[in-house]
Design goal:
about 280 residues, alpha/beta, 5-stranded mixed beta sheet, 4-stranded mixed beta sheet, 6 helices, about 20% strand, binds fe (ii) ion
Length: about 280
């Protein structure tokens, strides 16, 4: 009798998963097993390292609750969320980027132009633009679900001093596809480092700052929705965003208002969104 080799074991496991009846599940599982096994064999993973990995994933799960998604944060800092975005991007549409762990469904519908935050949340900004299809036609009844942090770098869900749904809102376009809302100029903020993902970043020697941004999910009837950001062009973290979310096309200047703009804001940003047709 000779001892089992890693390759023999891998083949044995792959043969089991190759019997999964669903073809896509079979493809995913056999690729996952193959890559996991190859990773472990290549790095000569030790028993202790395997135990540490299990403990890390267990702690990641324990850190999750209704408003904190440590697994999404883990996916984000590993660049996996951005990779899935890039793989699935729709040609001609606004580039997508990470959802992030702070999206909360059910934000209030607001009137066009309405302020989504409070005066004390930061420097007043006007965000506006158009939602169109890939040929430039304005999209009626397009929905923008937007959210961001206050000037203290915290989302409402992280900050007991902010009212629920502060700096969040849903806007619906008319036939001209135009939207606008008042908010505050976004700031860089640290991603949460009080959980296992924070330990990972520290051990990897990476910083934990996100380039300043406003989140948006833009959708319209018969079109593919886009989950994206508007990034502030004047931000030091655009080239080292902790979650690899920055794309050049999403970087916009927050410019000073001109005499044609409202006088009660300190910056104006123009951002158009383009949606591709829904899959048949
Ligand atoms: Fe964010």
């Amino acid at each position: 009798m000779t001892a089992m080799t890693p390759a023999q074991l891998t083949d044995e496991v792959l043969a089991e998963y190759a019997r999964a009846p669903d073809p896509r599940l079979r493809e995913l599982l056999t690729a996952l097993v193959g890559h996991l096994h190859a990773f472990s064999a290549e790095t000569r993973l030790t028993q202790r390292e395997w135990e540490a990995a299990i403990a890390f994933l267990t702690a990641t799960g324990h850190k999750c609750d209704a408003e904190r998604q440590e697994f999404i944060l883990l996916s984000d800092v590993l660049g996996l969320s951005s990779l899935v975005d890039v793989i699935n991007s729709a040609p001609g549409a606004t580039e997508s980027t990470v959802l992030g762990p702070f999206y909360v469904p059910g934000a209030p519908r607001r009137a066009m132009g309405e302020q989504i935050g409070r005066p004390q949340d930061g420097s007043p900004a006007l965000v506006r633009g158009r939602v169109t299809d890939v040929s430039g036609r304005p999209l009626d009844a397009a929905t923008l679900d937007v959210w961001q942090t206050a000037g203290n770098g915290l989302y409402d869900t992280q900050d007991p001093d902010q009212p629920r749904f502060n700096l969040r809102g849903v806007f619906v376009t008319g036939p001209d596809g135009r939207y606008e809302f008042r908010t505050v100029r976004p700031v860089s903020y640290p991603i949460p480092t009080d959980g296992p993902v924070g330990d990972l970043l520290r051990n990897a020697g990476r910083h934990h700052w996100r380039a300043a941004h406003i989140h948006a999910i833009v959708s319209a009837p018969a079109h593919r929705s886009v989950t994206t950001h508007i990034f502030d062009a004047d931000n030091p973290y655009l080239t080292s965003d902790a979650v690899f979310g920055v794309k050049d096309s999403l970087i916009k200047p927050f410019r000073p208002p001109t005499p044609a703009d409202p006088s009660d804001v300190t910056s104006v940003v123009d951002m158009d969104f383009t949606l591709s047709p829904a899959d048949p």
